[in-house]
Amino acid sequence: MVDARILHTTAALREAILRLAADRPVSEITVADVTRAAGINRATFYSHAVSPGSLLADVLTPDLDRIREDDAEVRRAAFARGAGVDEFATITRRGINAVVEHVVAHREIYGKALPDPNDASLHRLLVEHFTVSSEQHIRTLEREHRPELLDDVAAGFVAQGFVGAIEAWLAGPRRSRKALVDTIVLSFPSWWR
Question: Which domains does the chain have, with CATH numbers?
Answer without folding.
Answer: 51-187 (1.10.357.10)
